[in-house]
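Run log, item B.
One chain of 187 residues. Sequence copied directly from the ordering sheet:
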Amino acid sequence: MKYVSYQEYIEHGGEVYRVQAKPSGIHTKPFKTFLDELAWMVSRHSRVFLYRFDLRFADDKSATKDSFLMSIFFRRLRRQLERHYKTKDVGYSWAREIEKAKQQHYHCVLMMDGNRIHHPRALSIKIKKIWLEISGGSPYWSRWHFFHRLDFKKQHKAIYHSSYLFKVRGKGYKPKQARDYGHSRLC
């Protein structure tokens, strides 16, 4: 069972983070996994790039009954980013959602060495192309953050923004073989 917090702040690793827990709550275990992945990235790179984006399917018939499509998507994306930006350090988290009167969609966050990427234009094009090829759908929202490892204000802003992925609302409406969350395995 997933622990849900309705508090505005969550403590992890000696730090306190403001989160988007209202009104439905936030799943703390996957959120803390995301924090661990981000901490690993911050420990390795002086500047971190965090890219938050959403993916939707072309229609309800395209929705999936498992998480295999996300595995394919991030495997292809990671391979292209490693080649393009000459880095092996590509981290990510994703959340599967479906709500009443809405089709299945994914919220994603990507983390990279901020010294390798200067603007997300090429990244956005790669995401759009890969998602279209494997799902027929498109990305429909994005936002990015750059922060230095010692700029805690910007880092906490990026974490607050990313905490939206881990909200309770929209989760759990899935077949048994599907997952609500997925993460890279940086650490």
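Observations after the first pass:
- The beta strands are 4-5, 9-12, 15-18, 26-27, 47-56, 90-97, 105-113, 138-148, 181-183.
- The radius of gyration is 16 Å.
Flagged for discussion on Thursday.
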